[in-house]
Design brief:
Length: 299
Amino acid sequence: MARSTLEGKVAFITGAARGIGAETARALAARNVKLLLTDLDEAPLRELAAELGEENAVAVVADVCDLPAMEAAVAQAVQRFGGIDLVLANAGIASYGSVAQVDPTTFKRVIDINVLGVFHTVRAALPSVTERKGYILVVSSLAAFTPVPGLAAYNASKAGVEHFANALRLEMSWQGVGVGTAHMSWIDTPLVQDAKKDLSAFRKMLDAMPPPLGTTTSVDACVKAFVKGLEKRSRHVFVPGWVAAIAQGRNLAAGRVVQKVMDTQSPELLPLMDEEVRRLGRSTSARNTALDDVAVDPE
């Protein structure tokens, strides 16, 4: 078997405690990549680091919204492993409800994590990544160019980080640093699982979309695409592959399909979602609410 070009590299993964982040960490560790792992969800983060071994992974409980915390985490990895070669800016959350209904504090938290969190992650790692002519993969989404109602903060944040990465690429390519964006449809992550559990409106929305727009893809398939993207320093990673065709047409074809479906479904589904959000008493998952409390009061 040919030696992986990832072997001996050091990767920084945010949102590493669960889902795509955790499984990508395992996949990279199997390729002899050293890891800096950050998340606010302490218990599963520590468990993952213990599983991978302290010789292979540094785990730091930190909020991507806190630039000094990100810088301190990177400093630990640089001291332990010598530097950072790869960045997977993966941490992200979503909010529930229409613009008229969503809790403004939760909306802001989505933007803070999904946009400012990516900036803080990149900013903290950039000196080392530049020195080592590394690669940064920013996790965007299909939502960057095919938005759906009830997820305005998520849609806006993923469009924002796509263009952040595009600008970063122009700034860094001449310095030998590669920058890519990942665009996924619905992946079977805690984010999607929580929304399905909390909101029948979300499940009905997915069911109303024509295939493949409403289908859910496995985390394993996503991880394989991410690892390949990191290895090849890809400009774009699309999961599943059909997302690439939609990206080429941007909002044109797929946007018209989603718009047509949602024009008929939104009068029923959006009020249902807003009513469910009211009954829940929160505009995001219970897991995110608990982690938000940790971020606000780390003591």
